[in-house]
Amino acid sequence: MRRMRDTGYHDEDDHDTNYNFDFPNFVAVIPDWPSASAQQFAENYCKQALQNSSMSAFCAEQGNVDIFSTLTQCVEDIKLTGDLDWASSALNNMEQQCSSAVLANVSMFEENENGTLTPPQAFVQKLCLNQCSFKGTCADGECICNDGWIGKDCGVVADTAPVVWDLKRGGLCDIRQRPCEKVNVFGKNLLKSENLTCRVAEASFQNGQWTKSGISYQTSASFESFTEIACYLPPPKVQPNRYHLPGDGTPSYGLYISISNEGVYFSDELLLIIYDSVCQNCVEDGACSLKDGSCLIRGYCFEDQDSNPDDWCQQCLASTNTSEWSRREVNQPPSILSSGNITKVQSDSFTVMIAGHDPEGRPMSFSASQNLPHGLSLSPDGFLTWISHGPDTFAMDIILTDQCGAQDVQAFTFSTIPCPCNNNGVCVPSPGMPIGEGHYDCLCQPGFTGPRCDINTNECQSSPCQNNATCIDLVNSFICTCPVGFIGEYCATLDECALNPCFPGVQCQSTTSGQACGDCPPGYHGDGMTCTQLPSSCNNKYHQMKNSGELATDGIYIIDVDGQATPVYCDMSRDGGGWTLIVTSKSMAGWDKGNILSYNEGSPTTDADYSILGKADRIKVSGASTNVVQYRLEAEAPGRWGGVWEVPLDYSFTHKRNNQTDVILVSKFDTWEYGPRSIGQRMPWIVEDPGLPAVLTTAEMPNQDWYGTVVGSDLGLPIFQDFKAPWIRDLAELPNGIWYWLREIERYRLHVCDHHVDVLSCSDGTVIDVVTAMYGRTNPIICDNGQLLVADCEATGSLQIVKSGCDGRTTCLVRAEDSIFGDPCPGVHKYLEITYNCVAPGTSGSLHGPEG
């Protein structure tokens, strides 16, 4: 059976696929000849037709056509068929022979006005189709039809419908053999007209006959010949492959076909039956019946044993039911092909595919007989995943079910085995081996090898250690024990540090290029190999140089400040030497409360703004063994407009209040006098009042009383422009610089209030050497003055009295009494102020500067 998708599936073949012409057994039919009168009538009719033919005379004149043979053919055709229309066939044959002869004889051609050879005009003018069917006149090759006749050959009666005889293939179209989208109609009186039309009316077989449904169409047609046209049909309702769509199908139906030359007059109707031969037996103009061994389900045809397109488990069983699906008679169950043993190590997780087979090749589905335990999961397509450890062994049934419910059940055993790898080796699936069957290799940790990682790799085997070093094998490593003088992982580097090239206490680091010494210890300065102890201050450095006989010169030195090497400027030549510069004020611009403590700190200088005021308190105690410290102020030039003062050791250089008033003027530069609120009364302090231009000062108010600004800030106001060092305002112009110095001294100082006693003492084999002594009052706030009187008085001879009683002794008791020193200012409470050194026996005098 030819299916719809076969290459031969079309409506164009002209043969009947069911017809078999049997040549050996063919028996010819002998016709009965007509009577003598009928023969005479045929001869007369044919002679008249030849005489009326315009071509017959022309062809007879040319002598290239046997007119008598044409007459004989015409008579024989009419005698055989009894149809006078066959006379036209004989004439057509004669005309074709004549035309071929004329067109083959170029000598008969005529030259036209363009010089081209053409067939003779006498021939062309007489050449008309079918000799105009004897119903018209041939003129210049075209028929001029008589009244009542139409067509190119004038062979059709005007205003009449065509006559139809039959449909091709007897009016049956099997949808399994052809698409049934066209049918050929045979008849006569057919015109090659642009309005050639087919009318198609649907019909169904009811109550033993074909009945029109009332639905009709007009379709296009194509002219095949004067006896055949092709009608194009609507899409057929019989569609075998649409069972999956909703609704019922159509196994067979009819179409009544009629034709028209101009779309007005239609022929009689012929019945075309379109059917599905799988389940329909149809006869020409007759009924269709259900074919034996087939099913008609929902209007669709199926052969016996065909499967339901929507459910393979149902099929057409004609012997059981021809109108409904039956359960499939034979369904072979599937089978599980995989082994029933699945094994893994505890650390492994994997997915394995369980293989199955269905004999009919139908879809299958895997499932388990119970809820999947211990981290198992099973997909319907057979992928089994196992991700947890679970017990050592457990069992479970796995079921394979085919599309129709047939099953295969197989027991599976799941086993967990320990990993056989030693020394923390890791089990990995063996390449190329089936998963889930316990095939594992060992991935060893570094330092181990062997199938089970039980062989320790000997890293010393390659002799990695050099210079006769001893190699000690470890797990995945080794250690080289180096001989003396070599270092490094492989003992390949000469140990320069073995010679102890660095300063004691400095760490030595051997390198490929030698060795590197670390930083010098705190308080030392150098490259790590050579370290020199730093002095704690300029004063300490001054004494080191004096004791070694070196010349103490002014300049930049490195001292130790809190273990850090710090560059400072030292004055080694004036006022006893050993002065550390803490502030240089060369301008009034750029100073503020932030940089007053540290300004250009790494570049000490007397020629530009500079400050290490923030380190002054640490410098003053760095080498102190006494209880006083000295500072020096000078303006305009070194040794000008200032002096040297002495204050208690616990006074701060960064104090922010004006209450550090225990100040002694030791020496004075140039001629100047204290003002009531000026420099002589208090140690300089940092001003916090944002309204004051001073940053570092010794006066309370910016008035005319010797306002002592050490570092100022120019606010752009005229009143502040000359506040810098105004203690010399009436003596010199605004100075171009102020310098602030620090020196710690080896001296003790004490105050004994009126009518009180105190003790001078020295230790470590030293004795007292009194430097200064004053009985009276020069400071209003030292000791209780007993009244609000300001006094400035000193008893003469105070120093000689104290020195005569205390010098050279290790301890000395002193008393503040008028009876000892006299009364320099009666009515005023006085005090005794003494400064002294502790010196070796046999020495005396001040070690630091002149007496004040």
Describe this structure in words.
Disulfide bonds join 444-453, 482-491. It is found in: Secreted, Extracellular space, Extracellular matrix. Residues 529-582 form the Fibrinogen C-terminal domain. Residues 415-454, 456-492, 493-532 form the EGF-like domain. InterPro entries: EGF, EGF-like_Ca-bd_dom, EGF-type_Asp/Asn_hydroxyl_site, EGF_Ca-bd_CS, Fibrinogen-like_C, Fibrinogen_a/b/g_C_1, Fibrinogen_a/b/g_C_dom, Growth_fac_rcpt_cys_sf. With 852 residues, the chain is mainly β. It folds into six domains: 36-127, no CATH class; 163-291, Immunoglobulin-like (Sandwich), CATH 2.60.40; 335-418, Immunoglobulins (Immunoglobulin-like), CATH 2.60.40.10; 497-526, no CATH class; 547-744, no CATH class; 747-839, Sandwich (Jelly Rolls), CATH 2.60.120. 11% of the residues lie in helices and 35% in strands. It has nine helices and 59 strands. The strands form 20 sheets. It has an eight-stranded mixed β-sheet, with no helix packed on it. Strands 43, 44, 45, 46, 47, 48, 49 and 53 form an eight-stranded antiparallel β-sheet that branches. A hairpin with a 3-residue loop joins strand 20 and strand 21 (321-327). Helix 2 packs across helix 4. The protein is elongated, with a radius of gyration of 70 Å. Residues 1-7, 14-33 and 845-852 have low confidence and may be disordered.
